[in-house]
User: Which sequence fits this backbone?
């Protein structure tokens, strides 16, 4: 159990650091009311988890330790949706209802699509 927690923690730490750096870079490129940093990270994270799941399921190349490190740890730390939820709520609370709806819908629908794409690419 300790080994598994360390793998998840290590992956999550690296994922969280990369999430922060990616969001910072993305926000510097185009700062608008739309939370581009979190949007970019969530979509990229969905694609990466799709690729990882594709490798695990289709090619059976990774054992449970790698799954814990990369899927649960790294992707879990990289694609936290708590920031997504907070930013969505702030858009709605600030009266940007249509932008909030666009953000929520685009994040969910494109996220699902790129998870599928990641899995499909490795079939």
Assistant:
């Amino acid at each position: 159990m300790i080994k598994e927690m360390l793998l998840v923690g290590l992956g999550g730490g690296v994922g969280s650091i990369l999430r922060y750096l990616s969001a910072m870079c993305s926000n510097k490129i185009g700062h608008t009311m739309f939370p581009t940093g979190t949007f970019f990270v969530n979509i990229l994270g969905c694609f990466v988890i799709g690729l990882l799941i594709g490798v695990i399921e289709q090619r059976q190349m990774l054992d449970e330790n790698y799954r814990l490190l990369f899927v649960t740890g790294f992707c879990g730390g990289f694609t936290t949706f708590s920031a997504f939820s907070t930013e969505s709520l702030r858009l709605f609370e600030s009266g940007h209802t249509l932008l909030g709806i666009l953000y929520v819908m685009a994040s969910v629908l494109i996220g699902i699509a790129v998870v599928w794409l990641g899995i499909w690419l490795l079939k």
In short: The two ends are 32 Å apart (CA to CA). Helices lie at 2-29, 36-59, 64-78, 82-93, 97-121. The mean pLDDT is 89. Residues 2-29 form the longest helix (28 residues).
